[in-house]
Amino acid sequence: MTRQEMLYEGKAKRLYRTEDEQVLWVEYKNDATAFNGKKKASLDGKAELNNEITSLIFTVLEERGIPSHFIKRLSATEQLVKAVTIVPLEVVMRNVVAGSLARRLGLEEGTPLKEPIIEFYYKNDTLDDPLVTEDHIALLDVATREECQQLRTMALHINEVLKALFAELGVDLIDGKVEFGRDADGSLLLADEISPDTCRLWDHATGERLDKDLFRRDLGNLQAGYQNILSRLRGAHA
Ligand code: C5P
């Protein structure tokens, strides 16, 4: 398999075609962005950390009955994935109040939720990824109502499996974001990445932040937090 022309460059990854139209080549970047690109930095080693963390997480999810677009890790910063058409929605799963939920509803960060909640955000940089309802999603023709229900069910299941996976490592999954794509048959498949860039991860014992809030809020060294997560994952699953 060889890397061919670049199809897309995002904030954290580049996507390339391969000679197989069903397979794409992903290259992780060292770039860290927050607040829809308003805060930026290049952080040495971040690409390697997220590539390996995402690869390990998708591998464990597959073993636990949750398929994804992930095929295999190719190198320190690259992986192969199944080609899907990304649904332009960020599906956020929450277990504990944090971030925009705390701000939007005036709730205290760190308060556990009685049950997990799911939110949809429309992926659109110009609009700053607004929170949308299922009516908005139907209006925008981004997904059908039936697909919204399916996305919700899939996200709740992924959240339960991820919560257990991190609990085994002594880490609390506070919240996280997943994305889905449609395969050639139109079926929804978990895609993109799952890493400390896309999940809030707090050490269970100390509450130490081990995720992108280290960068967003200048709380400490991002690479040290991500390395901590990777070491625990390797200890249990590599
Ligand atoms: O900012 P907010 O509290 O809404 O983020 C909820 C979760 O979704 C966090 O884990 C955050 O890392 C993730 N997220 C993301 N990409 C975005 C927005 C949020 O990965 N564009």
TrEMBL record:
Q: What GO MF annotations does this protein's record show?
A: ATP binding; phosphoribosylaminoimidazolesuccinocarboxamide synthase activity
Keyword Glycosyltransferase among UniProt keywords: no
* Signal peptide bounds: none
Question: A Gene Ontology biological process annotation?
Answer: cobalamin biosynthetic process
Q: Which positions fall inside the SAICAR synthetase/ADE2 N-terminal domain?
A: 7-232
Keywords recorded for this protein, A-Z: ATP-binding, Ligase, Nucleotide-binding, Purine biosynthesis
Which branch of life, at top level?
A: Bacteria
What Enzyme Commission number does this protein have? 6.3.2.6
Q: Which Pfam families match?
A: SAICAR_synt (PF01259)
Q: Which reaction does it catalyse?
A: 5-amino-1-(5-phospho-D-ribosyl)imidazole-4-carboxylate + L-aspartate + ATP = (2S)-2-[5-amino-1-(5-phospho-beta-D-ribosyl)imidazole-4-carboxamido]succinate + ADP + phosphate + 2 H(+)
Pathway(s) where this gene product acts: Purine metabolism; IMP biosynthesis via de novo pathway; 5-amino-1-(5-phospho-D-ribosyl)imidazole-4-carboxamide from 5-amino-1-(5-phospho-D-ribosyl)imidazole-4-carboxylate: step 1/2
Presence of keyword Transport: no
HAMAP family according to UniProt:
SAICAR_synth
- NCBIfam families tied to this protein: purC
Similarity section: Belongs to the SAICAR synthetase family.
Q: What is this protein called in UniProt?
A: Phosphoribosylaminoimidazole-succinocarboxamide synthase
Please tell me the species this chain comes from: Zymobacter palmae
